[in-house]
Amino acid sequence: MKYISTRNNKKTFEFKDVFIKGLGDDGGLFIPESLSKYSETEISSFTNLEYNDLAKKIISTFIGDFMSENDLSNIIDKSYSVFRKKNVVNLIKVGDRSVLELFHGPTLAFKDIAMQLLGNFYEYYLNNENQKINIVVATSGDTGAAAIDAIKGKKNVNIFVLHPHNRVSSVQRKLMTTGKDQNVFNIAINGNFDDCQNLVKSMFADKNFSNEIKMSGVNSINWARIIAQSVYYFYSYFLIEDKDRPINFSVPTGNFGDVYAGYLAKKMGLPINKLIVATNQNDILHRAISKGSYEVEKVAETISPSMDIQIASNFERLIYDLNNGDDTETIKVMSDIKEKGKYIIDHEKLDKINTNFLSSKMSEDEILKTIELVYKKFDVVLDPHSAIGYGAFDKVNITGNNIVLATAHPCKFPDAIKNAIDLNAELPKELIYILNEKENYKIIENNIDEVKKHIKERI
């Protein structure tokens, strides 16, 4: 499989380039040059596969000669051996819909599913190539912890994680900042997540700096994360008994990466009816999908901090599709978003979006009420992000097999859970120790030069 950038479809790349670079030199995102679709027979042949075996089937189609089939098999088995569920994820019935628990990895968030794999991909690549790299990543709460757990202690790689100071939950922060590994560096930026993301994008765009430090990225724009996440859409489909009813997924998302993985699965032939983009009050994606107005507003701080985002990085991949693979038009749209802070989607393109996507938003009060309702009726505790996904089905009024992606363990958001149902959401016993560990992070102003200086002094 060859890859292109959304901003230049003339030049092709191998999976290795796409994985290590993360972001194109032109600022675009990598996508396959062409995508083959599974037939109904092929999809049916996957029905009884265990999660690891299904992952091997799907991921192998994307990586070319990056590694042998045997090496991929060993790496997938190693990556998922650290999960608390044998088949990585867990599907439970909660009322009239199903909840797909994606938080059984080491840092209690769906991001572990892709990140553990990425960590082992890096180790494999660096050992073979005898190279050193520095990963720089922005987090709104969960990505950082998942990336650190996947990279910590590995040779030939350092990781620098930028999080917004005082804007992640204390448990999210402690999962990042209490490690003792020499290759992990936490930076708290005085600003919001979009500021952190912009700093990382600026460092990638500075070719002298990014080449000098051999910079790589593991944010949701990294194509390897998208393909790893597409697997659980397939897996959950096979767990549904009544295949005659349409299947819909509600995905709490801020950066459009997790829901884009579902869109990829649909493009590969998985018979998904609708993907619901479930947002909090930072609802740029909801406004784009429901009204055609992708317009940047001020980021509000909420009880679902992983979604406190205005610029949804992965949306560019959908914009490329909407423009029928016109890279020049994609450059123009992305330039308008950067300069004017908005992109108005015309009716024809909006209709195209709505064949695949619906959307909803929830206020703080609605999130707390959803957590309370689900707990009282079904004795299930949802974290605020998963509650947004659950409540979305009440807003879009769609029938079928409705699956909610539960993206984080409720214990990561103890204040919200206490507020909603007066319950102390406790960490799994393996992680309780972090509450009393010493934290280690550096607070830095939202200043690109200061951040670059800090990184260069530590490599």
What does this structure look like?
The chain has 19 helices and 16 strands. It has 459 residues and is α/β, with parallel strands linked by helices. It has a domain at 90-108 and 223-421: Rossmann fold (3-Layer(aba) Sandwich). The strands form 4 sheets. A 6-stranded mixed beta sheet has the order 4-5-15-10-11-14, sandwiched between helices. The chain has a 5-stranded parallel beta sheet with strand order 9-6-7-8-16, with helices on both faces. Strands 2-1-3 form a 3-stranded antiparallel beta sheet. It is globular, with a radius of gyration of 20 Å. It starts with a strand and ends with a helix.
Task: State the secondary-structure class.
Answer: alpha/beta
Beta-strand fraction estimate: 15-25%
Radius of gyration: 20 Å
Poorly predicted residue ranges: none
Number of helices: 19
From the coordinates shown, what is the CATH architecture of the domain at 90-108 and 223-421? 3-Layer(aba) Sandwich
Instruction: Let me know the average pLDDT.
Output: 95
Largest sheet: 6 strands, mixed
If strands are numbered along the chain, what order do they take across the biggest sheet? Answer: 4-5-15-10-11-14
- How far is it from the N-terminal to the C-terminal residue, by CA? 34 Å
The name CATH uses for the topology of the domain at 90-108 and 223-421 is: Rossmann fold
Name of the CATH class of the domain at 90-108 and 223-421: Alpha Beta
